[in-house]
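Worked example 2:
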Amino acid sequence: MDMKMLCNGIDLQQGIQNEVMEYYRSEHFRRIRNIADGLKRMESEAAARAELTKFFGEDEKRVKMLTCMLSCAAEQYQWYEKKGISETIFWDTMRCFTRFIGECRKITGIDAFDREWWTARQVSGTLFRIGTLEYEMQYCGQTCDMHRDIQEESEPQISIHIPSDADLTPDCCDRSIADATIFFERHFPEFRSADYICHSWLLAPELTGLLPEASRILAFQKRFSIRRVDYSESEFIEWVFKTRNVETADLPEQTTLQKNMKRHLLNGGKIGSGFGVLAGRKANHNSSCLF
């Protein structure tokens, strides 16, 4: 797949797309292309990003790094075809780039790429969006120490991630989990019996006192057996309040959750990041998803 087709397929913002295509066609990009190949393997992506950063020089909006990531994503299309993975999953997975740039604009007012530390998962064929949720293949201990007392480090696990545009209605979540079960059985059978885990502020026990009983977030949370809670993280601020580096007293109060959470924080409360294991997972073999 060529780069222009990828950019159009994921509806990449036009302004940033123009900058990507300009750099992609440059002699400078051709000189670093071999280094960028390291982004397609999780074991080498951190070193590749560090080396690329040295070559880039000024890259205020990280367009150069974005171009490298997107070039790897375009090349992954052929790998998807060989694995027999559907185009739907390819496009849904790679639209993360467009979503991240949109999220950056909401917070900073600028179209920029600030998730280079994350997107190697997509371009390496490690993380897939299947319906409303994302699923990352990993082995216990790779990214979450909180799970080491449950599994041996060598055991496979699938980490569930919740995109900012996820529809958390029970039907959508049921369909996504069922489809994911079939997907991994078919394409990655070594993960057939893996635990499905989640480490997120959405699993914070404090949310039960901040949201109505009928909340979709609470319904999602109840799918998991919560094993641990970590109070050292503050990422929930960005996801709930769509802002960074703001004093608690200045946080917006536009939604019920924002109002209740802000009051909770001002009263000295904390919001934990919960770690849980999905319970009662069953595949729907009448799934309409084409893998």
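The chain has two domains: 1-111, 126-233+272-291. The two ends are 19 Å apart (CA to CA).
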